[in-house]
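Hallway conversation turned thread

IA: we were arguing at lunch whether anyone had actually written out Leucine rich repeat containing 17 end to end. Turns out nobody had. So, for the record, here is the sequence (454 residues) and right after it the structure tokens. Reply here if something looks off.
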Amino acid sequence: MRPFTSLLLLLLLLLLRSAEPRRGPRSGAREKGTGGRVRGRGRAGVTRRQIQGCKEYMEAGEKYLDCQDRQLTTVMQDWPKDIHHLLLARNKIQILRDNMFSAFTQLKSLDLQQNDISMMEDGAFTGLSKLTTLLLQHNGLRTASEDVLLPLPRLTYLRLYDNPWSCLCSLDSLIRKLQLPSNRNLGNYAKCAEPHSLSGQKLKKINVDALCEADRRPGDKDGGRPKLPIKVKPEATSMCHTYMFPKPLLDCSHKGLDHVPSDLPSDIVKMDLSSNSIKHLRAKQFLLSKDLKLLNLSSNNLHHIDTAAFAGLLYLRELDLSNNSLHHFQYGVLEDLYFLRKLPLDNNPWICDYNIHYLMYWLKHHPGVAYSGLICTAPSEFKGWRVEDYIKTYNGDCPKDRQTGSVDTGQGGQGGSENDAQEEGGETGDRQGGRLPRPLQDRRPNKFEIIRLS
């Protein structure tokens, strides 16, 4: 029995060893599958990484997919289909193909600015029946027809500027649609780049009947020879970035601007003009931006602001003037800012003399405004003082000898009341041209405070 038992054990061992190599490859195959080498699963893994390269987030109950600056040449069909806002700015997309976005039926906004788009097929936006905002500025579009906009019945906001539009017969139907009175926010600021006779004219203003005339005589009147295209210097807004979501923002920071752009959009809520070289704010430069709530003018070496510079900014809530070269505000500069709540003034060389009084007077009568950075830098005796403290010193009591020696109450008295003395002192200061008196030491508590204005 023992030899028989031994033989059975040997057979069992051989069977076990022969079974192990078979299990090994199967196990290995499963491991490779989880690693992404199986065809179907491998593609899914790539898609997940691509989605992770974009930023998906929720705001105000709506879903955003931010795929800006990703070197993309097309959209990925494995992206979430329930997104409401798709941000594709600053990629490498060249052609918008038919049905390119048809899977994203919930889209309300599509940002395609600053790509290399040179052509749009007529069915590029098929399926986007809920789209209200389409941004196509800063691309290479030369022509398009009205048909490309037909799948967008709710479109109310369309940006097309900074494209080299060729204003010939092929653009006729699109321009006619843009010029309809009901489409007042479609295609604003877009201009013709060619032909030479129409160069620089806005699509919204151009005479449509002139398009085919220009097409029939491409050489204009120069002996039938076609003219070389003239490079049109881009306007200031073509240098800026426009973001419509979550709130309309015009980002013109670090663009080397030496003035406020003259063609500011009327529906911008936030405007960033920081880190430029704007030294002078002229009157009514923001008059059309009536919805503006935040204006950043920091780091501009700004040294002068005209009285009506902020005219029209009724709803402005935050004005950043920090890191500039302001010495004071002219009287009336802040009078249009009824709802201002935040006013950073840090790192400006404030001069504590008669001219600084208007700013403190306005702040005192607008206690809801949170401000910072009001520190005297000159003259030397007040350097480092808070402007509020300087104002208190300026309004100190006059010495007794000046009260008794120079005040005439009109009643034959020698001294007069304390109120009369302070009022007379104010008139004397005005007659002397508003010169700054030396800081006076309080001899008794003030009953009230007088703030003098120019």
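OS: looked through it. The helical segments are 2-35, 39-53, 172-178, 209-216, 357-364, 387-394, 400-406, 418-431.
IA: good, adding that to the notes. Residues 54-216 form a domain with the Leucine-rich repeat, LRR (right-handed beta-alpha superhelix) fold (CATH 3.80.10.10).
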